[in-house]
Amino acid sequence: MIKKEMIAMILAGGQGTRLKQLTKMIAKPAVPFGGKYRIIDFSLSNCSNSDIDTVGVLTQYEPLELNCHIGIGAPWNLDKRDGGVRLLPPYQSENGKKWYKGTADAIYQNINYIDSFEPEYVLILSGDHIYKMDYSKMLDYHKEKGADATIAVIEVPRDECSRFGIMNTREDLSICEFEEKPKEPKSNLASMGVYIFSWIGLKQLLKEDNLDEISSNDFGKNIIPKMLNNNQKLFAFPFKGYWKDVGTIESFWKANMDLLSDDNELNIHDDKWRIYTVNSILPPQYIGAEANIKNALLSEGCTVFGEVSNCVLFRGVHIGKNSKITNSVILPNTKIGNNVVIDKAIIGSDVIIRCNSYIDNGGDIIVIENGSEIKADLKAVNKL
Question: ∠346-165-185 over CA atoms, to 5°?
């Protein structure tokens, strides 16, 4: 293998239980997002745009659809012989290890893969966040600071700090304390789950952590606190821009709706920082003469004969005549019949919604499971 300055490792084995029906059969990073993408496309595209050509994707829960999507990495220019993308599931080894026990254990079990590239630095990412980021700038910052670890952080509202790992820093942005989901936070700098480590030091820590029988084998709970206790140099890297952890139904729906805003910070139409994905071989979208579409994203293969407002429609979605779909996310290949009313819903993939159905929960988000068939009288609302 050719020696690399830095390689990336994407943690993509999450079950995503808070996304409920959307992750019943697929890993969270494989969930469709934004009309034509999957969540993991953002981390992969960030790597490609940052000129990182060697990426390991650590899979575990329901990996089939994710594996099929990534393939050999061609859409992200990661189909390379000396590097490229590699899918790294847990495996049975001589020491009896099998499933990844935590984020640190997942990296530990792939030490041989990382060592094969002899990197100076390792970038560790979550595969389930929506954002655009130039990791090369973070690496420059890491080297400038002479850091053992650099953690990307973003300012969050104080009342949301209890959802995140919070970094307390000195004036030079060196990290002096890490608080896991604090009720009374000392700062509002939340970890984005984006880390750069100097590899030699991290490898030693991973080996020591593996021998600790009471460790959770987790970066936030074990590795980072140990580095702070060892007085190692940890720095926060401030990030300005759009970042969303789409780990809940509310945040997933909101992130899709954000794409429809005039002042959308993410801007998926930016030619200078493209988000790459696997493109479907489908015909152009068709808009019927009687259709009425306002403020919506429509992907390839959509056929619309009704009214669509403030919606994200994925590939192959059909909207029947006299149907009214508002404030909703409709995942791939879903067929919606005539005279259907839907408001504020996430409709899964391959769903059939029969004519005259009514899906509206009075302002709460409704989620319809992938592959469902819905037939509801116009008066039978709220109990889907």
Answer: 110
Taking the alpha carbons at both ends of the chain, their separation in whole angstroms is: 54
Band of residue 222 on the pLDDT scale cut at 50, 70, 90: very high
DSSP string, 331-348: -TT-EE-TT-EEESEEE-
Q: What pLDDT sits at residue 377? A: 53
Residue 352 contacts residue 374 (beta carbons within 8 Å): yes
Residue type for position 88: L
Sorted by sequence, the CB contacts under 8 Å of residue 129 that are 6+ apart come out as 39, 42, 43, 192, 193, 243, 244, 245, 246
| pLDDT tens by residue, 254-290 | 999 999 998 888 999 999 999 999 998 899 999 999 9
pTM summary value: 0.93
Cβ(26)–Cβ(62) below 8 Å: yes
Q: Strands, E, within 71-115: which ranges?
A: 84-87
The tokens describing 185, both together, are 């936070």
pLDDT (average), residues 370-382: 66
Rounded Cα distance between 202 and 151, Å, is 14
Q: Give the whole-angstrom CA distance, residue 203 versus residue 114.
A: 10
